[in-house]
Amino acid sequence: MNISNENFVDSSAMACLILYKTNGLHGAIDGLLNIIEKDIAISRINLILVSHNNRRVLHIYDTDKTYSFDTISLNDKEGVAIILSEKKDEAVYMNNLDSFKHEPSFAIPELAHIPFWKHNSLLRVPLLKTESDTLLINFWSNKYNIFTDDILHKLEKILSPLANEIRDVFFLTEKHNYTNFTVSSGEDKLKLCPELNDIYENIKIVAPTLSTVLIMGETGTGKEAVADSIYELSNRRDKPFLKINCGAMAPGLLTSELFGHERGAFTGAVSSRKGYFEQASGGTLFLDEIGEMPLEAQIHLLRVIEKKYITHVGDHKAIPIDVRIIAATQDDLMQKVKQGKFRKDLWFRLSVFPILLKPLRERKADIPYLVNHFLRLKMKTLNINTPVNITQEEMSRLYNYNWPGNVRELEFVIERSLILSKKNSLKSKFKFHFMPLENTNEDFMEKEWPTLLEYEYRYIKKVLDKTGYKLTGPNSASEILNINYMTLRSRMKEMGLLMPRQKK
Question: What DSSP string runs through 297-345?
Fold first, then answer.
């Protein structure tokens, strides 16, 4: 792999950003040198800040630890020698520095420590610019004529995520505190992810309204995070917010759970009970996996949306309700409508304001931000204080992976990897450990080559055995497999995986 490869450029950009987030600016620059020196004959990188107003140059960082300075006047020979080119606000490369070395004003012992004396080529990129300051990153080579427009373009692309990350903090921080740059905590995943900027803007628009919102996306894409954000930005954020997984409840109980029931309404109804709609009065109700809702419950839900009242199971009394509905689904509801499994009129009522979340494989620019977020979160939870050094090769693995489980799978991968790294000592190279289905049985796959159905059977059977055939709730098979209860039961039936009490 080399810098002309787009995947290498993208993964290098992510690695650089992660290194910044885990090891600071110095770590990012050191890591960048390690990443690209194999493909470009670059031997050194340094950062300088040029202040145009007061005509000063500030030393920020140099991978050659023997060279540094505090501040130098741009008007002095040393300042001029450090800058070399007057093109301080644009990218420039110089493939032969001999002309500077032979310049009489520079050929003096006092300037022998200036970088151009030790190298033969320079490429400079303005990393950040304001009206008064420019942060420059310099790439030095011991060889002649190695820099091209293509290399410049690739390096600018690699640096772009890093520049965006430090833009807001660099010029707001005292220059001498550059080593202590901080970033946002990353608590809000939506704000963290550049690819979700449009989604977040739509959330801010719809949140203050009472409009019904339908969130669509594959499992693990962050539908619940969107629902949380809508609630937090709404005028009902101080009112109840209840979450119901429509696929995790037995079909016969869902109507009772949502709308309540009277004593004696059905076997086991020993007392009257308020449903989720009444419990959420004045607030918000999040109906997850709405596509799994039985048709009978769909009829009741449609009436509630239209009439703004509910009736308990076993009663005819109308009870007015004031509840904002947010629904979510991983299913293709229009396909279910065509199949007669979902009401068309309910679809229209729910999709007043639809929000579609792309799978992680289609928004890989978000990966470094999410990795940083989950690293911080999980390291705190696992009480890991040792810095985690992530190589460019490991970031490439994340970038090239397809992420069938989306953001949730990435979270689990990071947690698993931290646990195993802690076990094996964080002093060794950090390695991402993917889901068992994808990675740990490679030898088994190569030797036996089972069909996908056979492998799915073995994996589900293994999870069922591990959980003692617990299908719902915390640490259950449906939670581990990241599928809803009804889907799991259906797959078990198709595969002949009987519950222990059903076995003869």
Answer: HHHHHHHHHHHSEE--BT----EE---EEEEEESS-HHHHHHTTSS-HH
Question: Which tens digits make up the pLDDT trace of 214-273?
Answer: 999 998 898 998 999 999 999 999 999 999 988 777 766 788 888 888 887 676 666 778
**328, 386: one domain:** no
Is residue 160 within 8 Å of residue 9, measured between CB atoms? Answer: no
Residues 22 and 43 in one domain: yes
Residues 392 and 476 in one domain: no
Residues 114, 223 within the same domain: no
Residue 71 in this model has a pLDDT that exceeds 50 = yes
Task: Tell me the helices (H) and strands (E) count for the chain, helix number first.
Answer: 19, 13
Q: How many domains is the chain partitioned into structurally?
A: 4
Provide the token pair at 380.
């705190």
User: Residue 3: its pLDDT value, please?
Assistant: 62
In this predicted structure, the answer to whether residue 486 has a pLDDT above a threshold of 90 is no
**Beta-carbon neighbour count of residue 470 at 10 Å?**
15
Q: Do residue 58 and residue 145 come from a single domain?
A: yes
Beta bridge partner(s), residue 244 = 287
Say which residues have a Cβ less than 8 Å from residue 168's Cβ, sequence separation at least 6: none
The residue length of the chain stands at 504
Torsion of CA 43, 49, 50, 55, to 10 degrees: -120
> Distance (Å, rounded) from C-alpha 152 to C-alpha 330?
42
187: in domain: no
- Domain boundary (340, 356, 372) is at 356
Q: Is 133 found in the same domain as 224?
A: no
Q: How confident is the model at residue 428 (pLDDT cuts 50, 70, 90)?
A: low
**333 or 475, which is more confident:** 333
CATH number of domain containing 330: 3.40.50.300
Q: Which residue has the tokens 């999410």?
A: 370
Other Cβ atoms within 10 Å of 467 Cβ, number: 17
List C-alpha distances in Å: 253 to 49, 288, 294, 448, 490.
66, 16, 10, 44, 18
Neighbours of 414 (CB within 10 A): 23
Of 180, 207, 223, the domain-final residue: 180
Q: Which domain holds residue 130?
A: 6-180
Residue 189 in domain: no
